[in-house]
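One record is kept unedited as follows:
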Amino acid sequence: MNILILTREYKNEKLPPCGGTGNFNTLLAKELVKRGHRVYIFGVNKTNIDFDDEGVHVHYTKNLFKRNFVYDLFRSVTQKFSFLMPYHFKIHEKEKRDISRRLFAYIEKNNLNIDIIECHDFEGLSLFLGQKIPYVVRCHGSFSVLEKYFGYKVEAGRKHCEREAFKKAENVIAVSRFSEQVNRELFGVSKFKLIYNGINIQEFQPNPNPSVIPFSVFYIGNVALEKGADTAFRVFARLAEKFPQATLQFIGRETPYKATLDKEIQTQTLTDKVVFHGYQPKENIIRLLNSAHVLIFPSKGENFSLALLEAMALAKPIVTSNLDSFKELITSGENGFVCDTDTDFVDRISAILTDGVLAETLSQNARQTIVDHFSIEKMMTETLDYYTTVIKNHT
């Protein structure tokens, strides 16, 4: 097949840092290439660039708002006044039309015979793709879902385009049962193909002789309130009283919230016990996570977490917040712990830090869960089967 992925995010050192969707797109694209398919990334973000990434053809173009200051200003002004909201929606629609126009011009210019397009749900990039080429929308987590279910503040134009795009989307992939539920409730989507995210379990192998940092609590993800960075620090501050040698180690992109967090760290005189590793390439992430004693996932909202899959595949004891999507992976007490409160986190992490048998049992069960149910092979087989069905049914 000739497959094109339309996206804001793709993980590569030549591009701006991205989140889980970018990691997923890179994994998906390279696995498709390994299986003999031709894959094109059409990215829309802050830069114009073309390059080859292990057989994946990557083309990025600046979006309308980065190319034209007037449009960006108009977007900003119109969102501030309710009577201008129709114009705010129109300017966002204009950007989506521009994306589709540039996409099809790229396909035509390069004589690409694209069989299918994959697109993420957030921002409604698929709004004006039409029916010329069949496409699927994979629900990594829309801004509308983040606002309604997890309290994020979201620009109205983004939500508008998501609503309109889902009205036209005929082929929708849910990445979890939770994803199905919220998108059915919010957008009225009635038909889904459930395909859980998968990871390369050979790549994410536990180190047989790891240099574990004793009493280290690792956090992976953007250092942000939405990901629970505040919870992680509150929990750690209490742990540090019980375990003076404990450290809290953040892996992930730093956001403006880090300034607030730094003040809290200084106030509680824990500066020498909190480490910020920043945004890291995959190889470093694997190395760092292999050194963790325990991992904390205190996020306030997730559709389905690749980072959690990766940590579990590395056979690490996990504690998570009580999210429906986390509970699709974690059976509390068997392959990790699900926590409701800060006290739960403190108690569960304390047990892991002091009980080697418990930590080992949780770790091995976590790894087996990923091997049995969330491998890249399973995800790729289901994805390609779905692509084939969509192409066959396209009229």
